[in-house]
Amino acid sequence: VCTMFMSEFTSFIASFLFAVHPIHTEAITGVVGRAEALSSIFFLGAFLAYSESTGYRQKTRWKPLLLTVTLVTVAMLCKEQGITVIGVCCVYEVFVVQQSTVQELWLILRNLLSGKAGLPKWLKTSIMRGGFLVFSTTFLLFARIKVMGAQLPVFTNFDNPASTSPTPARQLTFNYLLPVNAWLLLNPDNLCCDWTMGTIKVISSFLDPRNLFTIIFYAVLILLSVYAISQQTQRSRAVVMSLALMVLPFIPASNLFFPVGFVVAERILYTPSFGFCLLVAVGFQVLRDRAGSGKGILDLMIIFLISSHGAKTYIRNFDWESEYTIFRAGLRVNQGNAKLFNNVGHALEKVSKFAEALNYFEKAASVQPDDIGAHINVGRTYMNLNMSDPAEKAYRRAISLFPPIIKGKSYQARIAPSHLNAYLNLANLASKDPNRLGEAEQLLKQAITMRTDYVEAYINLGDIQVKLGRSQEALRTYEAASLQDPTNADLYYNIGVVLLDMNETTKARKNFELALENDPNHWQSLYNSAILMQEAGDPKERDIALQRLERLKQQKGDDPKVYFNYAMLAMDEEKFEEAETNFRKAIELDPKFRSALFNLALMLVNDLGRPMEAIPILTQLLEHHPDHDKGHILMGDLNINILKDIDAAEKNFESILKRNPRNTQALHNLCVVYVERGDLQRAETCLIQAAQQSPNEKYIQQHLAIVRKRLNDLKKKQLETGSAGKAPEKVVQSQTVQETPKQEHLNENGRHVSSSDDGNR
Fold it and tell me: Which residue numbers delimit the DUF1736 domain (predicted)?
């Protein structure tokens, strides 16, 4: 890329400087930052492809241009800023390829407005190429906005303090961040992995001396821009591309047009550093051309610069060796960021160095007194050190920082779930004293008021209500939680325990089964359900009870779902006989196992070629699950093709359409029934309706075309012979699908829940 604008020597300097620049360390060593490096590969690939699509006063070469758009799309999928390469291509087109200057463009515009002349042919071609790229950009941006749900993500004031500041503090601070980023590229000495929170103080006044750096930055940028676009030399073209590569990729992360979730991030400077290294190399070449006998000194200086950058990069890599080392390195540079102190504390906490971790958590709380997470970390660490009193004090300090609850009004403040652990942890601490259970209950109710989907608070609240002897209230609490998180096995287990206490064994067992549906390895539910099965004395369930007890020993299940999963795996490996055995075993254990019944029938039809054996399986499925649409579709298909029972097939498909008139597959297969009867007019009407419901289904359009052709042929034959003729042969096939449901497995959780990690990460 460099050799497109500069000599090989200057390109070598730029490339060498880019290769060793310390600012790249985060993008390469940090997993998150590698998206930047990946995006930059396709960024440069798109730019090189575009350079092949254009030329001075030449026509467009479309293959490279289409390749450009493809590579831009991939670059954007890696990282959003990849889309900015389109702007770089436009700058390249105007000022490098067509060798235009701003004066020439201004003259063309004046002549166009005055009617003296139209657009030159070369400019029309350039506008066409640029317009194609801009259109592509607009489409990609629209797609990106749709993915984001048509709204920007929400960040807290700790992520980016200036984003929540009033005017003009917000604008002054965001503009000041430009020279800060430029200085990191120019002098990458004090590097830090995290620049959020209090790292860079908000500029609240025009008299703040830091505004001077903003003015200097804009002055230099304007001077370079004027020089670059007002001349047409190899050097000016190199400068204009340097600025384009440096400025345009940085704009999405600049905070100037919309706030982002960070103040400064070194990783996002990876792509802009392309342009910076080009600019430094151009500047070095200018000085060298004018140095005369001083070239040797300049060469030594650039060698020293590259060597020092390489040494800094080498040393910086050791900072990224672990969480502890990188956050400790950040504290050497920045003592005003509470998140760094918190994360060093977390790293120490992981290796059980609680006393050392406490020092960092307390420092974080002193640096950022309004950081709720820091106070929670302090309290949790005191609990790990078995120091309840200072832990309670820390939790109460965290709770005091929450926006107040106004009685009679819903809570409007945006609360992080981890922050609510202050209430949960304080309630757990209080509940250790039987005399404070009421206090713990009120704390948990307050947490639920602030965030109604806080399931952990419901679980602990129900546990406390059980201890207080209020089983009905506990049951209502757990049921309310299950509405918030219907896949939480602990909730169903706790409901079952409360129901057992109330002698509601049937309902209790139902909830244990619900828990196992969500987490087949939930050992408490396995045990209790097995005991209930044994106590019920039902011979049909004795085997299942024994299997669950055996599973508790071996951590393996012998319930229907295990056999079903074995069968599905065997199907994937095309071991159909083994799959059949396991399907039949699963159905033996649970005759109503709809997924096992359906997939066994489907395999017998499609893979084993034994459709007659599938019919009783489907009959059993539809007996237990008369609303099983896919079962009706498959049964209808067999009625048409195997049993030749058109009336039965019609009932299958009509049964589906009564429940779901929009089921295109059932409607299409009903159309097939009409074809089988020779009623092509009705079949055509039916297929038209199906095509209107699903205009993108090609097979429906194809079948409609076949039916219409048969109708036309039949009409021609009638005209020729004057007779209706015989019914046409079969022209379309009914459609079937395979059902492969997923089974969720959740981690084991206890009945009582406590928070474990509540700090800033």
Answer: 150-222
